Amino acid sequence: MKIIEKFMIRNDCYLAGRKITPKGIMVHSTATPGVMAGEWFARWNKSYKAGETDRQVCVHAFLDDKDIYQYLPWDHRGWHAGGKANDTHIGFEICEPAGHTYRGPEMIGYDAAMREDYFRKVFRRAAELCAYLCRLYGLSERDIITHCEGYRLGIASNHADVMHWFPKHGESMDTFRALVKQLLTE
Ligand SMILES: [Zn+2]
């Protein structure tokens, strides 16, 4: 698994320089159709304090069907959860393919059959990244949650990802965790 390391050194999150001991992993998806992993660097490698962006956000990595970009050191405290999970969880974003829009948290015009190939690639790749991080930090598949599960646990903001998307392809966080478990036993 190739990971392209390119830290967002202009982002205030990077500049804050706080470290964590990773206790888990939070899986997100971007809700920004068609913007791929490498494109997020230019979007987010900006300083809120310097007035370059109106968002205070940063995650450890983005992945798409071709690449994984690591934008923060894994033990850096990220700004991805909107809650206490930032103190404990590595966060990464799965990029969504182009072609749909959003009404609130709902995908509109998403053609699951047409996107099945893309989805299979990112689902597998996200599980492989989780397995890699589990090995690195002595975690298991039980330590992996998604944003909406974090909200229910009271450690993240109220977002729907990734369970607004995975079920369109017959998957869930439980099937995702099962795949990570399988990868960890291989
Ligand atoms: Zn999220």
Short descriptors:
186 residues; alpha/beta; Lysozyme-like; six-stranded mixed beta sheet; two-stranded antiparallel sheet; 5 helices
CATH architecture heading = 3-Layer(aba) Sandwich
Helix percentage range = 25-40%
Pick out the low-confidence regions: none
Distance between the termini: 15 Å
- Number of helical segments? 5
Q: Report strand order across the widest sheet.
A: 1-4-3-5-2-8
- CATH topology: the name is Lysozyme-like
Give a structural overview.
- The protein is 30% helix and 16% strand.
- The radius of gyration is 15 Å and the shape is globular.
- It has 5 helices and 8 strands, in the order βαβαβββββαβαα.
- The chain has 186 residues and is an alpha/beta fold.
- The protein has a single domain, classed as Peptidoglycan recognition protein-like (Lysozyme-like, 3-Layer(aba) Sandwich).
- The chain starts with a strand and ends with a helix.
- Strand 3 and strand 4 form a beta hairpin.
- Bound molecules: zinc ion (ZN).
- Zinc ion binds next to loops.
